[in-house]
Amino acid sequence: MPDPDTVVTQELPIAATQTGFFGLYPAGDFRLIDGKCTDCGTIPSARWYFEHETIAVPAGGLAMAGYARRIATFDDVRAWHAGRSDDARPEYPPLVWVAAPQLVRHARLRADGASLDLAGTVLPIERVAKIPLNRSYYDASSTRFFASRPLAARGCLNANGRFVVRTLWPEDFHLRDVPPFRALPADFAPALALRQLMREEPNGGARSPFAAFTLWQKTSTVTDWRGRAVLAFIVNGGQGDDDEAHAGHFAIVTGRIADDGAIGDWLVNNFYTLDAESEKGIIAAPVPLDNYLADLNSGQAYYRPSYLLVAVLSRERATALVQAALGRVYNQFYRHQLVYYHPTTNCTSISVDTLRALGFDVPARGPTSRLLAWVGFPYFAAKERSVDKAKLAFDYLTVDQTRLMPAAAIEAIFGGLLSLSSGTATTESADRSLGQMLAQDLDALAFLRIPQIPSSRAWGDAPAVNAREYRARMPRDRSKVQIVPVPVRPFPARLRDDDLQPSSPHPSERAALAWGIVLLVGIPGLIAKAWKYLRASR
Fold first, then answer.
1. Are 2 and 91 in contact (CB under 8 A)?
2. How distant, in Å, are the alpha carbons of 314, 353, 412, 426, 437 from that of 361?
3. Do 320 and 233 belong to one domain?
4. Which domain range does residue 438 map to?
C-alpha cells in the first residue's frame, strides 16, 4: 500500500495525446507542438494565432482538411461536399487547441485545494495565472465544488514538480448510462419545449446539478450508448456581469461516447473573433469539451450554465462529414477569407451556415424586423451620432434570428432533428446530404444541462432568445452597462493571401445609401418646394 502522502514522480501525468480522443479521432493520431512549428501541414495563418499555445496537429500521412482558393467559404463547402466520395479518407482538423500538454484522470482534489489525490498518491498543484483582463477567477467556492467529485485535469509539470493546472473537469458529468426519458409537452412546439427545459431551473440551472435526459429515441435503439458517435450542439447561457453576452454562445460538437460514458474528449468547434484579444484568452479553434467548459480562464462554465442537444447516431458518417467541413471553414477563417462580423458572421451563423451548406435545412425564423431597421435607421444614426452604429443596428435587425441568437438556433435545430426522426421532413437534397444522413442514422436525442462552476464570477442565466429579451436584460441607465474593452489583434499583412475574394456588402450598406440619397436629395427638394409654395402664396 503506497504512503498516502507520497509525492508523485514526474512520470505520472501523461501526454495529452497518449490516451483518449479528440472528437472522433484517436489522440494518438496527433502530435503536440506550438504554432511556431515548421514541419506541420497546418497553414501559416492558423499557426500564427497559437505561437505560444499548445496545439495538436495530425501526424504525417494523415489527410487534413483543406480549402479552395478564390471562392467564398460556404461555396467552398458545398463544392467540396458535392465532390466528396462516400469512402473518402477521414479529414482531420488543421489543429486542435489542447492548451496544455499533459493530463491526469480519475483524480480527487484535496480539501485545501493544494494537491490532487491519485489513488493514494499525491500530486502537488498550482493553478495557471489569471489573465489580467479577466475580471473573475477560481476561488474558495471553486475548490469546494471540485473537491466533492472525481476529476480530470489538463496542465503541465513545472520545474518544482508541481502540476500547473489549466483545466479541472468533473468526471461525473458523463453519459455512462442512457439518461432517463423526459416526455416533451404535447401542447408545446419543439422549440418552446426545449426553451422550457433550459429555463425550468433558477438561473437557467447555473446553480443546479448536472442533468441529462433522453428526449426522443427509436424503439429499436439499443440501450447502451457507449462507443456511439454523436453530433451535438452546445449553447452557453447569458453572463451575469457582461451586457454584451446575454444571448450566450453557440458551437457544434463532434465525438463519441467513451466506454466509461465520458464526454470530455468531444471536440467543440468554437468560433470567436480573431481580430481582438479575448479578455478570457479564447482563440477560435476546435477544442476538447472539458477545456472549452472548464479552462480556469476561458472555460465557458465559469461564466454561465450550458446546454447540449446531443444526436446519438448509429454511424459516424454524419459526424465525420460535419467535422471535416468545419476544418475547411477554419482554414478560410484563419486566412481571413471568412471575416468575423458580429451581426452576420458570428459563432451561430458560421455554424448554422455550415450545416445548411451540407444539406441540413435548419428551419429559418426570419429577421427581428426589417421595417424597424429601415424606418429607424436615421433615428439610430442621430441617437448614437454615428452612421456606423446605425448600420450595425440595421444588420442586427435584418439577419435571420437562427443565424444570430444561439438559443433560436438550437431550438430550430431541435425542431429540424425531430422532423427528420419522424419522417415528416421534406428535402430535395441528394441522398448524400447531411439531412438524409441524420434521418437515416439518428437513434436518440439527449439534453444535457451543465451548471456554472462557482467562482468569483456573478451567476449567469439561460440565454435570451430574441432581441426583446436581450434589451430587457440591459440596464436602463446606460452608464451602468458592463462591457469589457479588449485590445485589437491585427492580422499580419505578410500572412494575407493574394487570392482572397471580397466579402459581400452588409445589408446596411443599401440602407445607408438609400437614406443618404433621401437626406442629400429628398429633404433639400422638399425644402425647395416649401419655399416656392411660400413665395407663391405671398
1. no
2. 21, 10, 10, 9, 12
3. yes
4. 174-364+401-480
Picking from 168, 185, 200, the residue at the C-terminal end of a domain is: 168
Rounded Cα distance, 355 and 338, in Å: 16
Q: Which of 410, 417, 411 is nearest to 439 (CA)?
A: 417
CA 323 from chain centre, in angstroms, equals 13
What's at 164, amino acid-wise? V
Residue 205 and residue 113 share a domain: no
Q: How many CA atoms lie within 13 A of 268 on its CB side?
A: 31
What is the Cα–Cα distance from 326 to 271, expressed in whole angstroms?
A: 10
Domain presence at residue 4 = no
> Mean pLDDT, consecutive 10-residue segments, the chain of 538 residues?
43 88 97 92 96 94 94 97 87 96 96 93 95 94 96 95 97 94 89 95 97 91 88 96 88 97 97 94 97 97 97 96 98 97 96 98 94 88 87 93 97 96 59 92 96 96 93 82 87 95 88 79 54 59
Residues 38 and 67 occupy one common structural domain: yes
CA distance 440 to 412: 19
User: Residue 329 falls within a domain, yes or no?
Assistant: yes
Instruction: Show the cell assigned to 345.
Output: 458572421
Number of structural domains the chain divides into: 3
- Establish if 487 belongs to a structural domain: no
| Distance from C-alpha of 247 to C-alpha of 240, rounded to nearest angstrom | 11
Task: Say what angle helices 434-441 and 406-422 make with each other, to 10 degrees.
Answer: 60
Residue among 337, 318, 277 nearest 74 (CA): 337
Nearest to 409 by CA among 485, 465, 481: 465
30 shares its domain with 111:
yes
Cβ atoms of residues 60 and 80 within 8 Å: no
Phi, psi angle pair for 416, to nearest 5°: -65, -40
3-state SS of 26-57 is EHHHEEEEECCCCCCCCCHHHHHCCCCCEEEE
The per-residue b/e assignment along 467-480, b for 16 or more CB within 10 angstroms, e otherwise, is bebbeeeeeeeeee
**Strand order from edge to edge, sheet including 54-58:** 30-34, 54-58, 96-97
Amino acid at 190: P
Residues 6+ apart with CB under 8 A from 127: 138, 164, 165, 296
C-alpha pair distances (Å), 275 with each of 269, 334, 335, 391, 483: 18, 10, 12, 20, 17
Distances (CA, A) of 10 to 1, 20, 103, 156: 20, 21, 12, 10
* Domain-located, residue 160: yes
Rounded Cα distance, 53 and 131, in Å: 14
> SS3 for 322-345, per residue?
HHHHHHHHHHHHHCCCCCCECCCE
Supply the DSSP symbol for 302: G
Phi, psi values for residue 516, rounded to 5°: -65, -40
- Burial bucket for residue 323 (CB in 10 Å: 0-12, 13-18, 19+): buried
